C-alpha cells in the first residue's frame, strides 16, 4: 500500500472513531502533513482529546496530555534540571513536551509564562534550560484546546502567540444521527469490541508524505490567489468598503505559508497531484480565523472572523 492510501485508510478509521467530526479529523491530518500545530475550540465532550489520542494509536509515536491549570509552571511543561546527590550533578529531566503528539488541554487556563514556554517549544522545536538547549522530536505536533463557554479565570492567548498555530478549528456539536452512532460506538468500546487501526504508519512514511505534499503541482495563478487572499486582509478597502472598516490588522506572512501548506495537504488527501483554488477556499477559514484582528465597528455589528473570511473569499478573484 502506498503512502497516500495509508493516510486515506487512516482518515477512514479516525472518522469511524471520531463520529460526526469529519472536519476535525481532516484538519488533524492536514496539520500532521503540513508539520504544524492546531488550536481547537469546542465545548466539553466533543471528542477533542479522543481525536489526537486515536491518532497516536495509528502512527508510530508517543502521546502525552498536559492539563493546563492556573498553578502550572513552565518547568511542568518543558522539564527542569534535577540535582542527583549520588553524582553531585544536575541532570535534565525532560517534561511532557518531549513527546511526538502533545495535547495541551485548556491552554487558556494557564498564565502567560506557561503558554509562552509551550509556544516557544512549538516555534523553535527546542527547549532551553539554563545554559543547555534540548531538541524536540522531529515528529512533533501540538493540539491545544480552548473551552469557549467558560471565560472566568482564563488567560486569553495574545495575537502574536496565536499566530504560531497553523490552524484554529471550531468543533460543533454532532448531528442527531451521528450522536446515535456515538452511543453504539461507546457501547462497543465498553464491551471490548472496539476496532483497532489496521496498520501503524511509520514516522519515515509521514516524512515521505510531507515531501510529496510539498512537491505537489501548484500553478502560478493559484499561488497568486493564496498571496492575494492574505494581502487583502491588510488592505480590505481595495476590494470592499466594509472589509476595510472591519479589519484593524491583517494576517502575517505566516498565514501565506500556512495557507499554501494546508491547501497542498488538502489536495494530497483528496488524491490529487495538483492544488486547486477550492483547496485554498476550504482551508482558508481555519487558517485565517485566529490571525485577523477585527475593529470595534465589526464587533459592534456582530461580525466575526469567519464572516470576514467569507467576504474575502467572495471578493478576491480566484483566478
Describe the structure.
With 319 residues, the chain is α/β, with parallel strands linked by helices. The protein has 2 domains: 3-190, Rossmann fold, CATH 3.40.50; 216-315, Magnesium chelatase subunit I, C-Terminal domain (Helicase, Ruva Protein, domain 3). Helices cover 48% and strands 16% of the residues. It has helices spanning 3-17, 22-34, 48-58, 74-78, 112-124, 159-162, 176-190, 203-214, 220-234, 241-246, 253-269, 277-288, 296-300, 305-315; strands spanning 38-42, 63-67, 79-84, 89-94, 101-105, 126-129, 132-135, 141-146, 167-171, 247-249, 293-294. A 5-stranded parallel sheet has the order 2-5-8-1-9. A two-stranded antiparallel ribbon has the order 3-4. A hairpin with a 4-residue loop joins strand 3 (79-84) and strand 4. Helix 11 crosses helix 12 (277-288). The longest helix is centred in the last third of the chain and has 17 residues, at 253-269. It is globular, with a radius of gyration of 21 Å. The two termini are 36 Å apart. 39% of the residues are buried. The model has no long low-confidence stretch (mean pLDDT 90).
Main attributes?
319 residues; alpha/beta; Rossmann fold; Helicase, Ruva Protein, domain 3; 2 domains; globular; 11 strands; two-stranded antiparallel sheet; single chain; 5-stranded parallel sheet
Amino acid at each position: 500500500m502506498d503512502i497516500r492510501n495509508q493516510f486515506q485508510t487512516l482518515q477512514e478509521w479516525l472518522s469511524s472513531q471520531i463520529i460526526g467530526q469529519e472536519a476535525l479529523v481532516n484538519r488533524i491530518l492536514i496539520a500532521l502533513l503540513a508539520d504544524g500545530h492546531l488550536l481547537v475550540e469546542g465545548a466539553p465532550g466533543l471528542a477533542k482529546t479522543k481525536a489526537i489520542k486515536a491518532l497516536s494509536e495509528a502512527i508510530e509515536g508517543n502521546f502525552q496530555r498536559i492539563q493546563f491549570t492556573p498553578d502550572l509552571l513552565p518547568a511542568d511543561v518543558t522539564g527542569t534540571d534535577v540535582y542527583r546527590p549520588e553524582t553531585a550533578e544536575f541532570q535534565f529531566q525532560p517534561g511532557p513536551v518531549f513527546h511526538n503528539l502533545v495535547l495541551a488541554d485548556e491552554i487558556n487556563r494557564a498564565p502567560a509564562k506557561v503558554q509562552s514556554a509551550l509556544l516557544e517549544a512549538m516555534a523553535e522545536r527546542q527547549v532551553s534550560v539554563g545554559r543547555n538547549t534540548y531538541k524536540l522530536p522531529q515528529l512533533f505536533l501540538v493540539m491545544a484546546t480552548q473551552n469557549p463557554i467558560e471565560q472566568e479565570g482564563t488567560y486569553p492567548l495574545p495575537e502574536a502567540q496565536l499566530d504560531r498555530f497553523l490552524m484554529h478549528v471550531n468543533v460543533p456539536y454532532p448531528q442527531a444521527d451521528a450522536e446515535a452512532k456515538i452511543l453504539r460506538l461507546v457501547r462497543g468500546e465498553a464491551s471490548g469490541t472496539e476496532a483497532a487501526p489496521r496498520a501503524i504508519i511509520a514516522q519515515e512514511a509521514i516524512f515521505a508524505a510531507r515531501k510529496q505534499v510539498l512537491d505537489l503541482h501548484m500553478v502560478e495563478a493559484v499561488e497568486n490567489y493564496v498571496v492575494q487572499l492574505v494581502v487583502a486582509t491588510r488592505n480590505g478597502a481595495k476590494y470592499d468598503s466594509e472589509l476595510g472598516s472591519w479589519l484593524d490588522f491583517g494576517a502575517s506572512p505566516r498565514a501565506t505559508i500556512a495557507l499554501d501548506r494546508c491547501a497542498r495537504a488538502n489536495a494530497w488527501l483528496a488524491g490529487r497531484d495538483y492544488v486547486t483554488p477550492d483547496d485554498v477556499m476550504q482551508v482558508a477559514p481555519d487558517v485565517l480565523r485566529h490571525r485577523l484582528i477585527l475593529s470595534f465597528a465589526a464587533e459592534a455589528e456582530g461580525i466575526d472572523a469567519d464572516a470576514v473570511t467569507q467576504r474575502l473569499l467572495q471578493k478576491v478573484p480566484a483566478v
